[in-house]
Amino acid sequence: MSKWIELEMLLRTIIENKLDSNEYYRVVNSKILRNLGLLENQELSEFEHLRRIRNNLAHGIEIPEPEYINSAGSSIEKLIETLKKYN
User: Fold this and answer.
1) Could you give the CA distance from residue 64 to residue 77 in angstroms, rounded to a whole number?
2) What CA–CA distances, in Å, run from 26 to 8, 9, 13, 15, 41?
3) Which residue stretches of 1-87 are H helix?
4) Can you give the pTM of this predicted structure?
5) CA distance 81 to 74
6) What is the pLDDT of residue 20?
7) What is the b/e burial string over 3-18, where b = at least 16 CB atoms within 10 angstroms of the residue's CB?
């Protein structure tokens, strides 16, 4: 979850800077990311997949195996590295 929080914080900062706005984006979704051109289609799909994992985990819907969670964490780290160029 901490990696997801880091990703969301980075995305909010990038979005606010790109839109030159102080508006707070409570929910960051792939539509916003697509409209701003922040991620390629494959990365957007991965973001949505990771968002579903996060939601299922946070709401107790599904608890994945530790290896799966670790893999998701690695994917989040890759997205963070990709997005840092916009910050």
Assistant:
1) 18
2) 9, 10, 12, 11, 23
3) 2-18, 30-36, 41-58, 66-83
4) 0.86
5) 11
6) 75
7) bbeebbebbeebbeee
What distances in angstroms separate CA 85 from CA 29, 63, 79, 81, one per listed residue?
19, 33, 11, 8
Q: At residue 39, does pLDDT exceed 80? A: yes
Structure letter (DSSP) for residue 61: S
DSSP state for residue 60 in the 8-state scheme? T
Contacts 24+ apart (CB under 8 A), 46-55: 46/75, 46/79, 47/79, 50/4, 50/75, 50/76, 50/79, 54/1, 54/4
Task: Dig out the tokens for 10 from the structure.
Answer: 């980075």
